[in-house]
Amino acid sequence: MTSLFDPVRIGDIALANRIVMAPLTRCRADPGQVPSAIAVDYYRQRASAGLIVSEGTTVSQEGEGYIDTPGLYNDAQVAAWRRITAAVHAEGGRIVAQLWHVGRISNVALQPGGQAPVSSTARRANAKTFTRDGLVDVSAPRALATSEIPELVASFRTAARNAIAAGFDGVEVHGANGYLIDQFLRDSVNDRSDGYGGSVANRTRLLHEVMAAIAAEIGGGRTGLRVSPVTPSNDAGQDSDPQALFEHALAGLAPLGLAFVEVVEGQTGGARDYAPFDYAALRRRFAGTWIVNNGYTRQSACDAVDSGSADLVSFGRPFIGNPDLVRRLREGAPLSPPDPATFYTGGERGYTDYPSLSARAA
């Protein structure tokens, strides 16, 4: 029987176990979206995860939606990430970069030249974000022109190339939680009348083009995708037929030989049964490694891998308060709760100061 703690190979990446650190936005980058020095310790501390998925990392300044989030579109960012990936590798870990474009979940204060954010639509989301002025409403976006989409796809391809140059083992494309790619996928947001709107085939076109470009650049075996078929995050209303949409989306990726798909089951950070969805049927549309996420406990994660319903399980908030989460899960040790007040505040407090079991014993 396969165990949560057994090694596994996902595409071209060999992992020591089947526990994944999910992407976690922590808002601690330096000016210019450059990862900070304290991020080296943060990721090193968590390198016992079979795989770390980095915090959301923007493919361009235009893709930024929250203050102090990192990027992967210039040399300074690549150099800073290289120190982080080297630290993870020195501890025997593996790490992929989550490539992110927030689309309309942004504010003009974060956009180059104070321009409007871009999206599949010109409709403003009923959502908020963080700027230097604190929590503010997101701004009204403008719909991307059809002629601009090749440049958008190219920004993902360039970020993937930069990720490999920075020492990452691969990338995960953020196609979830109501951000740009999800804004194109769902007909609750996408109101376009061009070749990227209307039918399911059209609404999945941007996703397919982005994934194909990245796979061509770094190889499908180092490329993954995150999706959240029914989550309402960031004012992403339910698609009229999410089952058909996401099954078509994944089926269309088959020729690329992707390493993995990570699926958020239910409402991100909330109810797993938020809306009806057949995740087993979705899995049958994808031949690669299947990673599940959202509210898993030690027991439910072990059960998922033991039963074969998942290949790996990703944990988010438990990795914040427990840098040695893998050991704690293996030994059945108590977990330390994270402090939500420090999730996005900057600095080492609530970031690199959570003690391991060994530190507690000492």
Structure, described:
The chain is built from 12 helices and 14 strands. The strands form 4 sheets. An 8-stranded parallel β-barrel has the order 3-4-5-10-11-12-13-14, surrounded by 4 helices. Strands 1-2 form a two-stranded antiparallel ribbon. A two-stranded parallel sheet has the order 6-9. The radius of gyration is 19 Å and the shape is globular. It has a single domain (8-361), classed as Aldolase class I (TIM Barrel), CATH 3.20.20. With 362 residues, it is an alpha/beta fold. It starts with 7 loop residues before the first strand and ends with a helix. Helices cover 30% and strands 16% of the residues.
For the sheet with most strands, the description reads: 8 strands, parallel, barrel
Could you say which overall geometry the principal axes of the C-alpha atoms support?
globular
CATH class: Alpha Beta
Structural class: alpha/beta
CATH topology: TIM Barrel
Note the gap between the termini: 36 Å
Q: Mean pLDDT, rounded to whole units?
A: 97
Query: What gyration radius follows from the Cα positions, in whole Å?
Result: 19 Å
Number of self-contained structural domains: 1
Q: Strand tally, please?
A: 14
The largest sheet has its strands arranged as 3-4-5-10-11-12-13-14
Name the CATH architecture: Alpha-Beta Barrel
Helix content: 25-40%
